[in-house]
Amino acid sequence: MPSESPAGSEERNHYRACNLCEAICGLEIRLSGDSITAIRGDQADPFSRGHICAKAVALQDVHDDPDRLRKPLRRRGSDYEEIGWDEAFDEAANRLAEIRTKHGRGALAVYAGNPNVHNWGSLIYGPLVYKALRPKHRYSATSVDQLPHHLAAYLMFGHQLLLPIPDIDRTDFFLIIGANPVVSNGSLMTAPDFRHRLKAIQQRGGKVVVLDPRRTETAALADAHHFVRPGSDAGLLAAILHTILNEELAAPGRLAACVDGLADLPALMAPFSPEAVAASVGLDAEAIRQLARAFCGTDTAVIYGRMGVSVQAFGGLCQWLINLINLVSGNFDRPGGAMFATPAVDILNDGNRGGFARFHSRVRALPEFGGELPVATMAEDMLAGGEERIRALLTVAGNPVLSTPNGAQLDRALAGLDYMVSIDIYLNETTRHADLILPPTSALEHDHYDLVFHLLAVRNTARYSAPLFDPAAGAKHDWQIYLELARRLQGGSLVTRLKAALTRWHMGRVGPTGLLDGMLRKGAHDLDFRRLADAEHGIDLGPLEPCLPERLFTPDKRIDLAPNAIVSDLSRLRGAIVESARRAPGDLQLISRRQPRSNNSWMHNAPRLVKGKERCTLLIHPDTARSSGLAHGDNAIVRSRVGRIEAMVEVSEDIMPGVVSLPHGWGHDRPGIRLQVASAHPGVSINDLTDDQAVDLLSGNAALSAVPVTVERAQEEPVHG
Ligand SMILES: Nc1nc2c(c(=O)[nH]1)N[C@H]1C(S)=C(S)[C@@H](COP(=O)(O)OP(=O)(O)OC[C@H]3O[C@@H](n4cnc5c(=O)[nH]c(N)nc54)[C@H](O)[C@@H]3O)O[C@H]1N2
Ligand SMILES: Nc1nc2c(c(=O)[nH]1)N[C@H]1C(S)=C(S)[C@@H](COP(=O)(O)OP(=O)(O)OC[C@H]3O[C@@H](n4cnc5c(=O)[nH]c(N)nc54)[C@H](O)[C@@H]3O)O[C@H]1N2
Ligand code: SF4
Ligand SMILES: [Mo]
User: Fold this and answer.
1) Are residues 271 and 365 in the same domain?
2) 114, 212, 608: which to mutate for ligand 2, most atoms within 8 A of CB?
3) Does ligand 2 lie within 6 Å of residue 399's CB atom?
4) Which domain holds residue 359?
5) Burial of 169 (0-12, 13-18, 19+ CB in 10 A)
6) Residue 589 domain-assigned?
7) 569-611 pLDDT, tens per residue?
8) Are 70 and 54 in contact (CB under 8 A)?
């Protein structure tokens, strides 16, 4: 209930879901008049139960940020001028259409970044622009992230979004490989308050085991942690499966009746005995066997792997093997194993099911997935001459200069484009190359429903967030920007244009809010907009439930355990295991890390999140530091095939010898950006070291992990620190 404060301004609470990460925590935002006085966890949210992290308060900082763009900006020479919306829409559409007419669709590209997935306006209305513009080159942050998960899901279950979620609230054995949910708050596993969920596993007598080249914040809470060599996981996972099959621990249960290829697995795994992979992984064969036995010896168990086993040279094989281990051990579509959510709005039926290798990238011929090309090829497809060279780019909520491999090369490529438009709230490392920036409203100025994360959640829940503030005068939501651009860009026959106009008219009239009611009514939980909106803390819809084979999207409702495209990649893995034996003891590998007060590249302009000691440090084991002539606090030069950076050394036993780690999302020292706070805490970009040529050849995902680097002591004093 609103109450009067002593000053007389009305005090009230507003409840909403946080849109910053996949945990979608419920927030209680305290207001006095129109000012936010506190942001806390919403204790009454049935899913997040009051949990929030340090980033939530920065929603206010972003909203109030004087650097956040509020009007369209047009470049004039090296500066920008504010212009009106209509002029901006006309100019953007005219220039893009002009380039399309002159050079064809091959000259156009779109890059969509991560916050799109956290913004339902973008998710629903973005496709209108893509359809109207019809760029030949589409990219997104997916191919520096979870692409292998989609590939495995598409080839095995028939839909790229039918992603298995670890049922952590009921499992007895949680095996985590290449993920750090205590810091990331979970990914492709929406699990707010992960820390307590992990502790609950232990309190009911279960075990948590972490496999990671760093003893992470998650590993520190686990029952066991093993260091594994970066990039060696596919071999390790294959050896676990090998053990399960060889020791007759397999028990796929009910699902045996709807899988194909089970009988092929022993032969496929034969080359990957624990002995064959042990040296490359850095774990002895007996330890690998024990892991497999412990996994199968528990009532319920689930293995879950994220970024560390996705953004690497064998990401596709890793995600396939993870699914197989869960399936073959009988921990699939069963409480305590890997399951599927039943969201109140099911985007699977209408969504893009996937599609693989129907066309290829221009220079390197890497395969598309779901209509998108691997972003590791974007810069070369701008730089290399010839037909279909990319000349114009639209970026939406993305910062690929900092987030994609060989960012410095992309930086140069963007500078050479004929035209670039960005839909973004900041003038940052990427958008500084735009001729035009179209800034949408802040997250607190629009309403929200998580179309994606309820689908990826460890429990079925639903939550609608009303807008907190009215949009600033003249401001436009992301979805309104898309509608305006789509209207101006739509081509095709008269019939196509009329159909598109009708769709836009309807979608423009009702907005995402108006579409939600219909989506809820079609869903499995028989909800409607009113009921959902009235439940301001969200609605609990119960635990995950078994749903196979009905939920499968394969035409025969069967799971393909051994898709040809994936199986044929096993020979590349065999080669890499042999090759790894030739690695010299002094060879170093670089990996990334996430930090509690960072959110990819775009929240370093929030003063509360960047204050304190330098965080963009190079983590290195004491033995490696010694043999490299480095000491704690030194400034180190790190070199890779593509670049060189300098960072302060942080010596730590928590990282594997021979491995070094830098956080990602930093590097705010590029000229021309308008991020006052971030510029004062620039750090360096790890993606000036990661290699655009290093990809998972199967999926096309960037291999951001296990980058070969050298380190040495810089002569000068540290630049940051
Ligand atoms: N080396 C290395 N690289 C990585 C990773 C790593 O672990 N290591 N992680 C990868 C992963 S998982 C991801 S998801 C990518 C992220 O890659 P990107 O999505 O390219 O980068 P972000 O840093 O998320 O940038 C988001 C952009 O969206 C803008 N923005 C924020 N909110 C909104 C909004 O509501 N509307 C609009 N229009 N714009 C908005 C921000 O200003 C910013 O420019 O980075 C990847 N890169
Ligand atoms: N605080 C915070 N939270 C975030 C984000 C953020 O930037 N900051 N970003 C959000 C986004 S977009 C995403 S996708 C999620 C990601 O969520 P996670 O995947 O949980 O996060 P990461 O920290 O990237 O975890 C990857 C782990 O893999 C390890 N690793 C690296 N290379 C290898 C390898 O070769 N093998 C193995 N086994 N492990 C390896 C790393 O040491 C790290 O611990 O986090 C989300 N949440
Ligand atoms: S964990 Fe994620 S969703 Fe929860 S408060 Fe932090 S940033 Fe927001
Ligand atoms: Mo991500």
Assistant:
1) no
2) 212
3) no
4) 73-144+352-540
5) middle
6) yes
7) 999 999 999 999 888 888 999 999 999 999 999 999 999 999 9
8) no
